[in-house]
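Deliverable D4.2, example record:
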Amino acid sequence: MALVLHAGKTNKNAYKTLIAAEYSGIKVELVQNFEMGVSNKTPEFLKMNPIGKVPVLETPDGPVFESNAIARYVTRLKADNPLYGSSPIEYGHIEQWIDFASLEIDANIGHWFRPRIGRAVYLPPFEEAAIAALKRALGALNTHLASNTFLVGHSVTLADIVMTCNLYMGFSKLMTKSFTSEFPHVERYFWTMVNQPNFSKILGEVKQTASVPPVSSAKKPALPKEHAKPKHKDEPKKEVKKEPAKPKEAPVGEEEEAPKPKPKNPLDLLPPSKMILDEWKRLYSNTKTNFREVAIKGFWDMYDPEGYSLWFCDYKYNDENTVSFVTLNKVGGFLQRMDLARKYAFGKMLVIGSEAPFKVKGLWLFRGQEIPQFIIDECYDMELYEWKKVDISDEAQKERVNQMIEDQEPFEGEALLDAKCFKKWGKNVRKRK
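Output generated by the structure prediction step:
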C-alpha cells in the first residue's frame, strides 16, 4: 500500500511531508478531490483521526496524524537520513527548532491570522500580543541566521522544512515587506529555502503579501418580525414632509484635501545625463564577440561621471557560502529584489571560486553620485555587502571594472564557477569555467 496523505492541495502543513518526501526519495500520494469540511467529516476519515483534523497519513501499519509527526515518520523511513543530521547534538538541535517553529512562529501567526478571516473573535489587544510575540520569535531567529545559512549544520534538515512551511503562511498571508524588513536574515533564509528545487516543486511560485487582510466584519442579527409594531388596517397613512437636504458642512478647521500627486523619484529631478542607460544595456546584451573592443570601449564612450557613479560590492559573509547552488540562489534573490532599481541602475554579480567557500562580488552603475536611498531602504540585501565607490582616475580600479564587465574578475588565481547565467535588464550572475 502506498503512503496516502489526506489534505488539500494548498495545506501548508501537508507541504512539510511532501517536501520531506522529495528529499528522502519516499513516494507519498496526495489524496484526490479532498474537500475541507466534507472529506474530513466522513466516518472513514474520523476512524483515522477522531477529531477530524488534517493532514492524516494513511500507511500500511495504520494512520498517523499531526503534521510534524507525519513529517518525522516519512523522514525516518530512509535510514541515516541527512534530514535528521549526523550526530546526537544535531538531532537535538533539529528537534529544538521544529518545536520553536511550531510554538513560537506558527502559533503566533495563527493567533494573528484566524481572527482576521473570521475563524475566531477579533480582539485588538489579543492581536497586539500575538504580533509582539511573533516579532520576539522572529528576532531570535534573525539573530541565529545572521551567522548560519541553515538552522542546523551546513545543509537542509527537517527543521528547515518545518520552519519554512510555517513561515510560508506568514509571508504569503500576513507579513508584508515593511513588516519583515526588520528581520533581514529571516527574509534571506526564507527566499533561499523556497527557491530550493525540492521546495519549489511543492510550493510553486511564492509571493509575499502586499497587505494584511482586513478584519471580517460580523453581521448584526436581524430584528425578529414579531417585534415589529403591527399597523392597524384602518389607520390612515401619515404624510411625511420631505425637507430639502442641507449641504454637508466641513468640520470647523477642516477642508477636503485634493488628491496629492505621486512624489517624483529624486533621481528624476537630476540634471539630464548624456548617458542613456538603455543604450548601454542593449550594447552589453547584444555584444557576442570582441567584447573588449566593442562593449567595454562603448561603455567608456557613453559613461557620464557627473550623472552616474560606479560601485564595487563584496559580500560580508563569504564563509557562509559553502554550497554552490545555495550561493547562486542567494545572489539570484538579491538581483530579483534589486529589480526596483531597473530604471536607474545596471548591475553585475560574480560568484567566484573553484571550491567552497565561494566569493561573491559585484559591480553596480547607479544614477547619481551616491547609492540611491530608496534602494537602501527597500532592498535589505544591501547591508550584507561592503560598498566602495570606484575612482575612475585610478587605472587599477578602472581595469577591474573592465574585468568585471567581461566576467574576468581575478580572485586569488581562482576561476569563475561552472556555467549558469541569470540575466535581467542588463544585470547578471555568472558562473563559468
